[in-house]
Amino acid sequence: MAHQAGGRRPAPRPVPETCETQAYLQDYAALLESLALPSLVVDHRWDVVMANSAYATLFRGVRPHPTAMPGDNFLRFVLFHPDACEVLGEHEPGWCLPMLAHLRAALETYGHDHELQAVRRDIALDPIMEAAYRQGLPHWMRAVGEAGTRIDGAVRLLLHPDPRRGPTECRIVDETPQTLRELGYRRLTMVLRDTRRAAAPVRRPRRQRSTAPHLTVVPAAQD
Hints:
The chain is α+β, with helices and mostly antiparallel strands. It has helices at 19-33, 53-58, 74-80, 84-87, 91-109, 114-124, 127-149, 178-182, and strands at residues 39-42, 48-51, 155-159, 167-174, 186-192.
C-alpha cells in the first residue's frame, strides 16, 4: 500500500480498535495496491486513509508542502498546493469548484469538525478564494445543478506524469463497500480513459514558491 504521494508519510489515521476491523483494512489495502488505476480511500475530511502506488505515481512530481500533500488530504491538495494545477487539468473549474462544493456540504453535516473549520479559515485568508467560495460557488452550483457536484461518474482531466499518457481524462468512480461506508470512509478510483478522447489543455505556468495559491476564476468582491 502506498501511504504517500510526493511527500512525507502521514501519521496513521485513527480507526476503531478492533482486530476484525484492522484485519479488514489491511486486506483492503492489499486489494487497493493490486489495482493499476489510481485509487484512494478518504474520510469525511478528505484525509487520505490509504492509497495505492498508481495514486502515488500520479502525484510523484509535486513539491513538499507543509499542509497540502496529496497523500495527506486531497481537499487541501486541490485547494492549496501550488503544484495541483500541474497534475489536475482544468484545475479551477474541474477540480477546485467541485471540491469547494464538497467542503460546503461537509460543513453542513460536520459543522463542529475542527479540521474542516481550519480549511474554511484558510480559504478566508485568500480574498480571491473567499470570493469564489461565497459568491462564485453558489452561482456555479445553480448553473451546473446537482449532477455537476456529484463525485461518482464525474469526468475530470489529469496531466499524467507518464509521457505515454500526458493529458488524460479520468472518470471518478465511487466503489465504496458497505464495511468502509460504515467506518465513515469512501473509496474513489480514477479510471484513466483513452488519451485520444482528452482535449489538450492549456498548461498554466508553475507558480513560484513564494506565491500563495488561490482561485482566479472568480474575481474578488468589489467594495
